[in-house]
Every structure is written in structure tokens, then in C-alpha cells.
Design a protein that fits this description.
The protein is built from 13 helices and 11 strands. With 345 residues, the chain is an alpha+beta fold.
């Protein structure tokens, strides 16, 4: 049992490092992995392999390949994974499989899934902003993304099968060196890993002074503690003022501003004073001489974040609000008497 626990821990650490790896791929090793993955799927190796600098460049490259043939993702990735999972499940039994997954892949699953979805969204947003005639459209790009294998971002499930399934050796070899890739009959398109990847302790994209994820062709994602933001928004955080924070209408962006600026600093700089507290939160009031009061409710989310912390939200409510409960009820379109939450969030 001790040896198995050690093996599971080694697999987790190995694939955690793979998921976070940046820098140029060993292209020779990655291409050998592609050929091996095709061989295990019973397919001839692709006639050629083409490299792209990012998932955005990759999907655009795929779109321009008229002679790529059909997608073989199901044979190369989907079926081998399903068969190995079934085999290992039968070998370990239901309880053994659950314990094994919890010690390996489950620990990487949420960050990997979140990052993959952010990349997918970032690619589609970039395609949606293209205005050049003949440019790849967002709907067409979405279809092509379904053909992609996630490379290093498949680390979660590869960790569970590390050293246990030779049929997955090709996929693992590609993942150790590359990012997303597209397997087709005649050609495989393979993406380089990012040049930079910044995440917080919970595995969320997080950087306050630049892109949290960046590829060498300029494709990048910006985020603050997992919250997607723009480069322009981040650049403006250095010059924040309480007034600018108050003027922000988007509640999520206002939360990012408050976190960056600091809640206590904001309250001190704003001349805020607590009006009272109850089971719903704390009511704060900022009196403005030439305008109506700014009234906010401080609410702590009862659902913990992945790192165990509890997120604080600040809700802008009408100036006439007299209790935190009344303010939270107003955000739901209710009066204080009708507001009876089962769980405070």
C-alpha cells in the first residue's frame, strides 16, 4: 500500500509539473509521441506535422488545410482513454478506482478544466473580433476546437494512468512537450506550450501586471484570481481611486478593483462608516457632499473557494437602504420581510 501511495504521489507531482510547463517544446520527442499515438490507434502516421505558436494560431492553421482528411481524435484519444479507464476500473474495483482518482487526477482536474475553458473562450473571442474578409469565423472555429486534443492540459487524466497503460504512451509523450494538437488522417497540427503561465495557489489564472497566460505569437489571457479581465483594465489598476471604483458598474470588475486596492484602504480613503450588521452582512455608507450617499453591503460568500478562503462581495444598494438584510433583499427584487435565503451566498 505504501509503494502504491508513493507511486500515486509521484504521478501527481510529475503531471502537475507538466500542466504548468512553459517554454519551447522538444519537437522531435513530441512528434515521436504523435506517431506512437497513431500507431496504438491502428492508424498510419500522418504524412506531415505542422507546428503553431498558440491554440489560436493552431485553429486558424487547421482551417486553412484543405487536404487534412477527417479528424481521428476519437481513435487517437477518446477510445484509448475509455478502454484504459475501463481496464483500470475493473482491476482496482469501484472503491479502488475512486481512491486512485482522488490521489492523482482529481487533484489536477478543476484547474486543468478551468484553464482549458478559458483558452477555448479566448480563442473564440479573438476570432469574433476579426473583421478581415475571409477570416475564420467564431462558429467555424468552435467546430474545429472539438477536434483538438489538449496536450499538457490533459495532465489530470494522464496522471491517473501514468505507468499503467501503454496505449496512452503516445498521448503522454505529446503532453509532456506540447500544448493543444489536432490529429487528422493526413496531418497533425501541434501547438507550442505557452511562454508564460501565472496561477494562484488554487490553480486559477492570476496576474496583476501582465498576461496570466502568454504565447510567443501574442495570444494571451489576462486574469485576476481567476476573473477574466482585459489588458487595459489591468493597466488601469495602478491608478485606482475610490471614485473610479464607485463608478464601475460591473460588480465582478468592481470586486477585482477592491481586492487590488484593498478593502480597508478603500474604506479609509472613502470616509466610509458602518451603519450596522446583521445575518446578511455589513452595511457601509459613504457620504458625498455633492451627490447621494454611496451605500454598499459587505457580503461573505458561504461557499468556499478552491483554496478554502471565502470571497467577499460588495453590493451597491439604494441610498435609502437601512440594513444589510434590506440591501441584499433588494438585489433579489424582494423586500426584507420576503427575503429568506436557504443558504447565504
Amino acid at each position: 500500500m505504501g509503494d502504491r501511495t508513493m507511486d500515486q504521489g509521484d504521478a501527481y507531482e510529475k503531471w502537475r509539473a507538466v500542466a504548468a510547463a512553459t517554454g519551447p517544446a522538444d519537437r522531435k520527442a513530441a512528434e515521436a509521441g504523435v506517431r506512437l499515438a497513431y500507431a496504438f490507434a491502428g492508424l498510419p502516421a500522418p504524412e506531415r506535422m505542422v507546428w503553431a505558436d498558440s491554440p489560436l494560431a493552431g485553429v486558424e492553421l487547421v482551417a486553412g488545410l484543405a487536404d487534412r482528411g477527417r479528424s481521428v481524435r476519437e481513435e487517437v484519444r477518446t477510445l484509448p482513454w475509455a478502454e484504459e479507464r475501463r481496464r483500470l476500473h475493473d482491476e482496482l474495483g469501484p472503491a479502488g478506482w475512486t481512491a486512485h482518482w482522488q490521489a492523482t487526477g482529481a487533484r489536477l482536474w478543476d484547474p486543468a478544466r478551468s484553464l482549458a475553458e478559458r483558452i477555448r473562450t479566448g480563442v473564440l473571442d479573438a476570432l469574433g473580433s476579426r473583421e478581415d474578409p475571409g477570416a475564420l469565423t467564431r462558429p467555424a472555429g468552435r467546430e474545429l476546437l472539438y477536434d483538438a486534443v489538449l496536450g499538457q492540459q490533459d495532465a489530470a487524466w494522464l496522471a491517473a494512468f501514468d505507468g499503467r497503460g501503454t496505449r496512452l504512451a503516445g498521448l503522454a509523450a505529446v503532453a509532456e512537450q506540447a500544448g493543444w494538437w489536432w490529429p487528422y488522417e493526413k496531418v497533425a497540427v501541434v501547438c507550442e506550450r505557452p511562454v508564460a503561465l501565472h496561477r494562484d495557489e488554487a490553480g486559477r489564472l492570476d496576474r496583476g501586471d501582465g498576461p496570466a497566460l502568454a504565447h510567443r505569437d501574442g495570444f494571451a489571457l489576462h486574469a485576476w484570481r481567476g476573473m477574466p479581465v482585459t489588458a487595459e483594465f489591468l493597466a488601469g489598476l495602478a491608478d485606482l481611486t475610490p471614485q473610479r471604483i464607485r463608478d464601475e458598474e460591473n460588480a465582478e470588475l468592481r470586486r477585482v478593483m477592491l481586492e487590488f486596492y484593498g478593502y480597508e484602504r478603500y474604506l479609509d480613503a472613502s470616509g466610509a462608516r458602518p451603519e450596522g450588521r446583521d445575518e446578511a452582512g455589513v452595511l457601509w455608507r459613504i457620504e458625498l457632499g455633492d451627490d447621494e450617499d454611496v451605500v454598499m453591503v459587505e457580503v461573505v460568500n458561504s461557499t468556499p473557494e478552491p483554496d478554502g478562503s471565502h470571497r467577499t462581495y460588495w453590493l451597491r444598494v439604494p441610498p435609502g437602504t437601512r440594513t444589510a438584510r434590506e440591501g441584499v433583499a433588494w438585489t433579489f427584487g424582494l423586500d426584507a420581510e420576503a427575503y429568506e435565503p436557504l443558504v447565504q451566498t
